[in-house]
Structure formats: structure tokens, C-alpha cells
Amino acid sequence: CAGLRNLFQGLSFSAKYYSKHNPPQTMCPYSKIGPKKCHILDSSKSTCTHRTVPAGSILPCRFFSSKEGTKVPSKRKQNTSIVTSDLLHKNLLKSEQKNWSNISPTYKAMTKRIKEKLEELHDMYALNSGSPRMRFGENVYFEENGCIFLAKADDGEGNAEVLFSVEDLGFSDAFIQRIRISPDQKYMAISLKSENSEEATCIIMKLGNLPVVERVIPSVFSFEWAADDVLYYTTQKNLKCQNVFMTTFASQKHTKLVYTEQDARFFVDLYCTKDRRFLTINSNSKTTSEVWLVDCRHPFESPALVQARTTGVIYHIEHRKDQLYILTTYGEPAEYKAFLTDNYIHGINLDTYGKENWQLVYALEKKTKLVDFEMFSDDCIMFLKNAGHLYLNVISFVSHSVQSIKLPTWACEFELESHPEHTTSTCYFQLSSPVHPPKRFAYSFKENNLIEQAVQEVPIITNCHTTRLLAKSKDETLVPITVFHNKNSKELHRRPLLVHVYGAYGIDLNMSFKEEKLMLIEEDWILAYCHVRGGGEQGLSWHRDGCQHNKLKGLCDLRACITLLHQLGFSQPKHTALAAASAGGVLAGALCNTDPALIRAMVLQAPFVDVLNTMMKTHLPLTIEEQEEWGNPLEDEKCMKYIKSYCPYQNIKPQCYPSVFITAYANDERIQITGILHYVQKLRKAALDHANRTSKKGNWIPSIILDVQANGSHCDSSWEQSLNE
């Protein structure tokens, strides 16, 4: 154990913020099952043969200067400039930490009350929202409280045995992100992540009467079993995944590199088709993709290309009964469509894979978002979103029919449970909303109906009303808004309103259940979610209409949404707050500059607020990859001027700003602290300048507060970390 701990302490844990097929496992802090000790081999048993990135590698900070492009006359002056900038960064950070230490005691009583209420709500709902189950024949695998359990399907989970425990390894701050069981169930691959890093470590357990650690692989992002003892995995370095390795666990163990992506815009991950016939190597940029197939019956053969990357075409692969099914944006309109290959596949036949052999099976309706899909032996299930509503479309390959089922009106998010066996007759998933805890549902292919699974003692949310609105933007585009408020609230125009926005990367607003949202509803707040362009709520075109040279459309959408809410009597500007995280900080910060009178407060979490300076620095790990979202100001002067027109940091000016609270993370590799420090300093100075120039009676200076968290990162945090924030 000591040897393994020493090895772990030299490794960086990681995880990607998002993953289409493999969301982070939900952690439940309560378990009635007593853990059983795992026997752990000494670290010398690890046989991984390839070298990895040095542990603890730290990405360079982003230093912003008003003299971009200034030529440095000598190396000596350059070194002096770096030292000066580093010293300025440390002084700014120290100043903000001191400021927060002085301010935070003011909120002590309020913090205590809120924390107690949130813990009460968490205790009420957490016991009933277990993590997803993975079913393999008679065996059920599940994760709770940092432990992985194995139970028999007919035996109940009370007699489950512990296969793995994070606590036994001495890592209380690490959590399980991904689990993969080998086809013969003799091996289990697990990725561990800490809150302070985006890099993960993969642990391979050999299962049996006494589970043991077989191997430890650092800096891993995705991994899949191609065969009983053959694992493919990708490595992550500086937020990029570009290499795919294959490693074996048979008598002759070896590891080799099988694929390398040369284009910095592309990110590589792995996925197995539902029937486990192929392992897919997926290389994706923001707008283009390419897939290579590994035949799981011949896992040592070289991968075969399905369709060479075509600019603007995204595609994903599934397999069923000797035919490939391709989910792709190929063809007009450029939304997702389902195709299948024309010919049977006998082994690897490259001639049948190209898009000239694709036959259209199903096309989405206009302004419909494909959230996820799952392939089964005789059916395919698609989870869709249209005008804010969730739908379940069941495509039958036997009857060649499509059945559409509208899910409950309160549902805003779903999580598909793992179904390793594609021949199963039931599809399980969970539905939730910001104020509705997850409820488990099942769709039966045999009965052709939707069944709500009974959950013991789950409190029913009856006092919350859900409203869906459409706001008319500047160019007449209708923008969806989802509103939640207490049914018993009177005089809604006097109630406080919290508006949420994101609008980037084609990603939907996060509308999963949060205890703090339910608490606000109970305290007569109104919650509004603005599904502006740039996000993905109405399909791929919705994203295209809000990225690059269309980014200002998202700002117009946000302005129209807040204005409509006030016109309809949902609160008023002096009671309105705006919340955003990460790239959502671009639109929130832009609105704060252009329309500060619409809101009284703004709350930002790890916000992206200096687009221009960031996109001018190609040495940063994500800059080249993100040119498809924001543009390339280095090569396009029009793009530079356009970004400058909306960039929050560039457009700060003396005026009456709302109060601002920002949470940032000292170890954030995506949105680094330096840019946020400069933004806060500039915003505070502008607000103070305005107050000094217009010293009228009753004039107020907004509170602009920055809380820099020593722990945490840009990824999802644990319940305890979220509670502290």
C-alpha cells in the first residue's frame, strides 16, 4: 500500500469537463454497505512501458499586457519583464485574498443559515438518487461513496461486495470518474480524479476472490476494452488528447502507440459500439470529425478509417447486425441525421465505409437538438430537445417505424444509464430539472411504453411552477426561456430574479438538479434560464448562429430575454441578478458593459472575460483549438475588431455597474487567474471613477468581490466543495 501511495503522490489526476458517452459518476455520500478491504499490490508490479509527461506539470499563466506585440530588445529585459509581471500577479492575488478575508465575515450569519438549509435538502434527496448501475448478465456494478460494488441482480444490493475503495488507497480528495469492465469481467479499469487537476490516473484491477491492482497508468483521459485482456487508452497532456495506446494483460504484456493526431485543433477519445463489435477512435474538432475502427475480434490489427475528415462534417459510429450506423451532420440541412452503410461488413472492408455508400435512415426536425442516442439489438433510442421540451424517439429496425414520446413537462435534463448488453429489453434513464431531483424511468421495448420507477420516500416537488417563454431578439429570432417560481408567490414583480446564461460551444445550459436552486424557489426567488444562440438547445444551427462573427447575436438574445421577463412582471432590474460560468462569462460580462441598468448584481464562476488577449496567444493549450468558436484575430483584422467590440475586459468604462461576485480557482488550467485579476482591478477602478465623477446624493459604489479558491478546478466539484462555494 505504501509503495502504491508513493507512486500516486507523483501523479496528476485528471478528467475532461464533459464527455458525451461517459459523464462523471454521481457520488453519494451515504452508504449502508460496509466496505471490504482490497488487497493492493506494490507499485513495482506496474508494467506500463511507455514514458509519460513529468508529474505536476504546470501550465504557464496568461499574462495580459496593454502593449501586445511590443518587440523586446533583449533577453535580459525579457526576463526582467517576466519577473515584474510575476511579482505584479502575486501582489494582485495577495491583495484580493486580503480583501476577501476582510469582507467574508460580513456574511457569516447568512452563510451559516444557507449552509444548514442546503445540508437539510441534500440529506433529503441524496439517499434516493443513487449512481447509475452497470449490468452484465447476473452481475450489477455500481459506485457509491468512493467505492465500487458488485452485487447479484436477484440478490439485492445489501449483500454487495466492495471491489475497490478510494479511501483504502489514502486519497480522500480523489473521486471515481469512469469505470470500464472487461468483456469477461476479469478486469476493471477505473479513472481517479482530484478536484485540483484535470488529469486523471487509470487503475486496472484484476478481479477475483481477492481483487488486486494490476497496473497504474498516469495522465489518462478515455479508455475502452477491445478484448478480454486488451485495453486501448488515450493520454492527456496540457488539456490535449492526441495519442492512443494499446496495452495487454496476457502472459506477454506489452504497450504500444497505435494512433497519433497531428492537428492541434483535434481531440481524440475512445468509444466501443454497443454490440462491442468495434472500438472507435474518434478525432474531433469543434466542427469536424474523423473515426477509425478497431475490430474487437482482431484487436491487434491496425485501425481502419471510416471516412476521411471533411471540413464542417461531424460523424459518430454505431454498429448493428453487420451494418454501420452513422450519426452525422453530412448533407443539408447541417443537423444530425442517421445513415447506414449499403453493404454487409465482412471483416474490414474499406470500400463500404465512405459517405458515397451511406443511406439515409432518419433526419431530425428543424430546431431540434439531439441530446444523446443509444443503440440496441432491434431498436435505437434518441433523446431529443425541441422548444425546451424533452422527447424520446424510438426507431424500430423490425417494424421500420418511429414512435415519439413527450417526456414530463418539468424535465430539463436526462442521464442515460449504462446498458452494456445491447440485447436488453429495457432502457433506463433519469430525468431532472434544477429544482426537481432525479427520477428514474424505464422504456420497455416489449411493452412499448414508458414506466416511472418507484423510488422509496422521494419527496414530491409540488410548489414549483415551470413556464416556457419565447423572447423576440433584435433580428426577430425567437429565443427560448425556461422559468421556475413558487406557485404560492404573490406580486412576482417584487420577487428577486436569478437569470442564467451560457451560449457557447453548442453546449446547453446546465439544468440538472441543484439543492441551492430548490432553496431559492422555497425562499420566493424566480429562476430563469436563457437559451441564447451559441448554445446547443435548438440544434447545431443554433450554435453556428452564435459563434465567431455571430457572437453578438447571443448578447442581443440575452438582452431580449431579460427585458421580456421584466415586461411580463417577473421581478424588475433592481431585484435581478445574472449568473454565468466559464465561457458564459463572455455574454454576461458583455451585457454588464452594454446594459448595466438591466441587472443589480452579477455572479460569475471561473469566467472567460478576456477573449481578445487569450486568442492572441497561440502558445496557450486551447487557443488554436478554440479558433473555430471565437475566430483567429492574429490572421484576420476584422475578427480582431469584432472580438474587441464585445470582449468584457476590453469594453470596461466608467459607468454605474452592478455589484459583481466572482469565484476563481488558483489551479484552473482553462481560465487562469491572471486575466480575472486584471478584469476585477479594471472593473473596480471604472466603477470608482464613475462614482467620483457623479457624486450625487444617494449615488452608490457597487461591491466588486473576488474569491480565489485554493482548491478546485474548472471541472465539476464534489458536493462538499460546492457547498463551501
From TrEMBL:
Q: Which family does it belong to?
A: Belongs to the peptidase S9A family.
List, alphabetically, the SUPFAM superfamilies matched.
Answer: alpha/beta-Hydrolases (SSF53474), Peptidase/esterase 'gauge' domain (SSF50993)
Q: Where is the Peptidase S9A N-terminal domain?
A: 119-449
Supply one GO CC term from the record: cytosol
Name the Gene Ontology molecular function terms of this record: serine-type endopeptidase activity
Q: What does this protein do?
A: Serine peptidase whose precise substrate specificity remains unclear. Does not cleave peptides after a arginine or lysine residue. Regulates trans-Golgi network morphology and sorting by regulating the membrane binding of the AP-1 complex. May play a role in the regulation of synaptic vesicle exocytosis.
Q: Where in the cell is it found?
A: Cytoplasm, Cytosol
Q: Which InterPro entries match?
A: AB_hydrolase_fold, Pept_S9A_N, Peptidase_S9_cat, Peptidase_S9A, Serine_Peptidase_S9A
Q: What species does this protein belong to? A: Bombycilla garrulus
Question: Could you tell me the Gene Ontology terms of the biological process aspect for this record?
Answer: proteolysis
This protein's record includes keyword rRNA-binding: no
Q: Where is the Peptidase S9 prolyl oligopeptidase catalytic domain?
A: 512-689
Q: Which UniProt keywords apply?
A: Cytoplasm, Hydrolase, Protease, Serine protease
Q: What is its main location?
A: cytoplasm
Full protein name: Prolyl endopeptidase
Any idea of its EC number?
3.4.21.-
* Magnesium keyword on record: no
